Amino acid sequence: MYFALGLFAITYVLLLAFSKFRAYIAAISAVLFVVLGILPVTQVPGAIDWNVLMMIAGTMGTVALFIESKMPARMADIIMEKVPNVMWAIVALALFAGIISAFVDNVATVLMVAPVALALSRKLNISPVPVVISIAVSSNLQGAATLVGDTTAILLGGYAKLNFLDFFIYQGKPGMFWVVQVGAVVSALVLVFYFRKLKEPVDTAERTAVTDYVPSILLSGTVLLLIIASFIADKPAITNGIICVGMAVVGFVRKSALKQSVAPLIQFFKEMDGETLLLLASLFVIIAGITEAGVIDAISTLFINVAGDNLFLIYTLIVWASVFFSAFIDNIPYVATMLPVVSGIAALMGIAPHLLYFGLLTGATLGGNLTPIGASANITGIGILRKEGYTVTNGDFMKIGVPFSLIAVISGYVLLWLIWT
């Protein structure tokens, strides 16, 4: 266990220190976890969340067509017409991303909204780095608002038997949706402060002409199908991935037919960000490795030993330990591992587990905003920027991510305690 923990720690130190080589560092570490026998090779396919990878790959393809259609530029024009200055244009775009992310996986949201941010930044002649970061952290925040907003919310819903409406009103009390909205309001103030100097008026030039509306229909169709799929019980684990890949295939097959060429199909594979997919797949294997070695189980046991039967202390530990760990490890395997632990703690204490469930979701989902590698949406946003030729340092990300996360977590931490005790 200690050897696995050491390898894990070295891996994440290197990931933070050498941001340009994250995918390759993670891949080498994943191979070491298997070669050294920490994770049996037979468990590797099951450790990787193929649904997430397929969602990313498919949505990247659809988004590429979306960009070509000029619709992102048109949306940027509309946003600029409605706001008084550059600061509010960026804040509005981040809030817009958050609204979408409440109903669609946050990775898909970043893939959909980031092109708008890039178009907006080009029009305003500013760096898109902080704009895309703002979109990513806002998407992560709202991912905890509904059952379909994020994989962690889906995990909680399935384990705790919560349906879509339970996230709004549960047992006659405000659900996670309203807790997250309070966090969204207070954290938006962080963005207002960060971009406060951008008071230049927004140029309201003539709206960009859209060349093809079909990609917008495909993207909207992806959103609608993802929401519909959330209501289907016992669906295949890769349902969302199939939806995203399927819509992208439809788009590129149509483009190939119109051009009477296979070139668009080749383009589909080129649009996939191989480094981002490699990084995510490697992280899934690494987390499975430390889980197999007993590292996460040992940490879970520590919670019980430290907190005893003090509800406030155990709630505080779950929230803030989740914030800390999710800043450095993917929150999906963390939440999957901690849900039965939280349930066991509640059973031993003789209490309903809902406060601890919601505390876990709050800490694990919002904690991912502390670092660039803490959430899949952050990795995806940085990958998009890298494809555009921009390098994102840890400092660039944390200047926004740290204050944004802390103020959102604190508000949720306090509000959940007041509602459920």
Question: How would you sum up this structure in a few lines?
Answer:
The protein has 421 residues and is an all-alpha fold. It contains 20 helices and two strands. The protein has a two-stranded antiparallel sheet with strand order 1-2.
Please describe the topology of this protein.
Layout: H1 2-17, H2 22-35, H3 44-47, H4 50-68, H5 71-82, H6 86-101, H7 106-124, H8 129-142, H9 151-160, E1 169-170, E2 173-174, H10 176-194, H11 214-229, H12 239-259, H13 263-271, H14 274-292, H15 295-307, H16 311-326, H17 331-349, H18 354-367, H19 376-387, H20 394-420
Antiparallel strand pairs: 1-2
Q: What can you see in these coordinates?
A:
The protein is 73% helix and 1% strand. The protein has 421 residues and is mostly helical. It has a two-stranded antiparallel ribbon with strand order 1-2. Helix 6 (86-101) packs parallel to helix 8, helix 9 (151-160) packs parallel to helix 17 and helix 15 packs parallel to helix 17 (331-349). The longest helix has 27 residues, at 394-420. It is globular, with a radius of gyration of 21 Å.
